[in-house]
Each structure stands twice: as C-alpha cells, then as structure tokens.
Amino acid sequence: MDISNKSRTRAIIEKHDFRFKKKFGQNFLTDGNILKKIIDAAGLNAHTSVIEIGPGIGALTEYLARQVKKVVAYEIDTTLIPILEEVMSPYPNVMIINEDILKADVRAMIAQEMPADDIAVVANLPYYITTPILMGLIEARLPIDRYVVMMQLEVARRLSASPGTKDYNALSIAVQYYCDVEIAINVPRDVFIPPPNVDSAVVVLKRKAQPPVVVKDEIFFMELVHACFKQRRKTLLNNLSSYFEGLSKEEITQTLALINIEPSVRAEALALEAFGKISDVFHEKRC
Ligand code: SAM
User: Fold this and answer.
1) Distance between CA atoms of 80 and 219, rounded to whole angstroms?
2) pLDDT in tens, 33-42
C-alpha cells in the first residue's frame, strides 16, 4: 500500500507520535495522482539516480524508489529518520542522509554514490528555502541534468517568467541563465497534510548545455542584474547610478548608448541577452 494517501499518512504519523515542525516547512503530499505526474515529468528510468531534498515520511521517495536505480534523500529533521528507515525498508536502493541540504557536500556524495549516472533532483521542497537550495545546487555546476521540484506557485511564476511580465525579476534571469524552465503541474492546497497557506506548482528546470550569453565575468553579471532590479519602478539609469557611485549619469548614458540601450527603460523590459551586453560594457567600470 502506498504511503501517499491521507489515511496511511495519518496512521504513520500517529504510530510514531510525529509532531509537525513549521520551521522545517513540513507539508506532506497525500495524493497519488500528483505523485504520478511528478514521476512522469521527471522522465525517470532504471539508469537514473535521484537526489531528493526533504523526504518527510517518504511519500515521493517510495514512488521514486520503484522507478530508478538509486535515491539519495537529505532530511534535516532527526525525528523523521526512524520513520523513514522503517517505511523505506522494502527499498534497498534508498539512502537517507540526516543532514541540512544547505550544508551538505553534494558533489562528494555524487562522486561516491552515483558517478556517471543520469542524475535528477526530484523534490517537494521546503518552501522557506526554495531559492537558496535551487541556486546553490545550480550555481555549483553539479552534474545534475534536471530539477523537478514542487514549490510555492508565486516562486514558480518568478522562475519561469518572461520579460515584460510582472513576475520577471533578477531570479528569473539568474535561473534562466543556467536552465530552461517551465511550470509542469499546478497543485492545490488540499493534497497536503497539513495544507500550506499558499498554492503550489511543480517546476521542471533542464540544464542548458551552454548559457544563452557568453559574459566576461559571471559573478559581475549576476550582481549587475540584481542592481538593475533593485528598485523595480526606477529606470535602468537610476538603478545603475545607485550601483556605480563613481560614475555620473552622463557617463552611464553614454556607455548604454554604445550598446543601443535606452537609459529610460526599466529592467523588467529587458531580455537576458541585454543584461549580458550591459554587464560586458560596464565590466571595466566596475567598482
Ligand atoms: N517529500 C515529503 C512529501 O512530499 O510529503 C515532504 C516535503 S515537506 C514540504 C519538506 C521536507 O523538507 C520536510 O520533511 C522537512 O523536514 C525537510 N527539510 C526542511 N528543511 C530542510 C533542509 N535544510 N535540508 C533537508 N531537508 C529539509
């Protein structure tokens, strides 16, 4: 019998006298249809190894274990470990690591547990740290091919947003620099115990073979993108002027003219490629 239905989830919680911890963003999935859709979206096979973040009581872990070569799941909450050990005992291909994913050496784990495998991250993420988890793993350039991850709908919209939309921001650009992003599944609140206060979505992020722009300095590119969005309603000129304290508005306007970008434009109207040009033309002028 699957873990992922409301009565089995309640029975496991009661048997182990488990207390939910809000600080760890614990909302357990109890819907087999959503789990099947997540598995389909992840394109798993017997050569895939999966990294799961936050297995909870193992609803998703169990579905993954049935499909893939190996699952390595990081769970921060020590009180969940004996539960996971019990419910995962029929699945020898599951390894549970009791560690904070933000502190874990994922590169070393991959080298030891899943070298040369097709690797995917599949997870119902703890929402309070969605961005640091994703950006940490993506920016580390680990050999992870795709991320199929549940998160707050609002964050999902930002990650997948296009220029000129209200959700488009520095995070959209940072993520889309590395990955193709799409929202695959919308998820209502009532499929979780306890239900979260927000709607959710499953996002598929596929690593790009090459970034869409080649920039002189990636760290400066990311920093500049954040600076351009710092005050969303301000023009590009004003945001750049706050960032480059040593440059006059005339100098900034002249520099933007070299790449045919209007100083009066707002960052939300500019595509990723434009930020690549801005980053390169201002590279020599950085503080
Ligand atoms: N995967 C389970 C499911 O779908 O039912 C639980 C998902 S729940 C939204 C998030 C899980 O992440 C919880 O089990 C929580 O304890 C765990 N978690 C929270 N912060 C974590 C961290 N920093 N590192 C690893 N796991 C974490």
Assistant:
1) 38
2) 999 999 999 9
